[in-house]
Every structure is written in structure tokens, then in C-alpha cells.
Amino acid sequence: MARDRRKRNGRRAGSFRTCVGCREKKPIDELLRLVISPEGKVLPDLYGRLPGRGAHVCPDIKCLEMAVSRNAFSRAFKCRVQAPDPVELCQAFSKSGIERIRSMLATAARSGWIKAGRDAVRMSIRKDSASLIMLAQDSSSALAKQISREAERTHVPVKRILTKTELGKYHKARPLAVLAVTHRGVAKRLSKEIGHVLSLMVGSRKGSKLYSDHNGLTASDDRGMMPQTQASA
Ligand SMILES: [Zn+2]
After folding, report:
1. Whole domain around residue 228: which residue ranges?
2. What spacing in Å lies between the alpha carbon of 65 and ligand 1's midpoint?
3. Taking the CB of the first residue and of the last residue of the chain, which one, N or C, has fewer CB atoms within 10 A?
């Protein structure tokens, strides 16, 4: 598995692809990859491991919809494809993104790269050891404001995703309103993944209740708190 990831990162590092929806050229790791089945079905490449020709798209339902309406997948794969459902694709991608977020959090927790709770998080910001702060979606707005203000001073990104119960799974199994990730590489990957998931969830919600029913899992895109992710919001 580690090898796959390395291979994936190696393949992805430094290259650019054009989104089949908006036609913008972007770094490959900011795009989602889709492949085609032998039956002409467009499939999401959820783990970046499927072989064959790929088409790339921004993690945004608008780009998926544009790609479908312009028949861009047929052009990208140079064959006739069955038009995929953009909402279904959003759901599949965000679900696999959440799996990755959970697995990264579990690794970070096991490795001691997490500071949990308000005081520990504030201390890690002051000591400059926090690389990413995750606020529970149901954390109080007073806490969110305080943490965001302090994180902003040291340019630590703050992401708001998952509930207190969900975040608590990575620390003593008790509800947790805020945590800081101290490993820079893990924080960077988490940050990117969360950005993708938040933007895909907007699309997922358009056509389905899946995410409101999903183990109490919710996400919010708090623009005031995350100026660096506004572009994908
Ligand atoms: Zn796009």
C-alpha cells in the first residue's frame, strides 16, 4: 500500500492536467481522476490506482456537470461513453476522501502527531508546532472564533469538518471540539483532502440526503475561517 502511494505521488508530482469541465490547467493532485470501463462506463478512480487512460476534473460538481453536458468524457476517452451522474460521482469521491481523512487521522493519532482539546491546541499554535487545526463542525462559535484568530496569526490553516463525536474517535473516544495535527506532511495531505471533500459535499447534497444521514457526519465550509480555500468553495 505504501508503495502504491509512493508511486501515485511520484506520478503526480509536478505535472499538470486540464479539467475536462472548466478546461483549466491545474496541478494533477488538485484534480480527480476518472477512467473508462470496457463497457464504456465512466468510473471514479478513487484511490489513484486504476490503469489506463484517465480524464481529470476539478473536485467540483459544476465541472462534472459541464463535462457531462459538453460530452467531454467521450472526447477524453476517444470513444462513446455512458453519461455519468455528477451527483453520484461527487458522492463516491467524497466518500473515499472521508475514508482517507479518517485513516490519516488514525495514523496521526497512533503516531502522537495530534494535540487534542482547546488548551493543547492553543499551546501548539503558540509553540509553532501546529500544522493544521481541525475544528468540529458542531464546536461552539466562540471556540471557533478564538482558535481561528490565533491560528491566523501564525498562518495555520483551520478546517471545519466532522462532528465532535467523530473527532473524538482519534482521542480517548470522547467528544472533541478541536485538534491540531503537528506532522507537516500529514497536515498538508489532510488539508488538501478536506478541501476536496468539502467542495464535493456541496455537490453531493444537491441531489441526495446521503451525507445528512451518514453517521451524523457533517461538513461545513466556513469561508470566513479559511480564506485559503475560498477558491474551491
Ligand atoms: Zn474544473
Report:
1. 91-232
2. 10
3. N
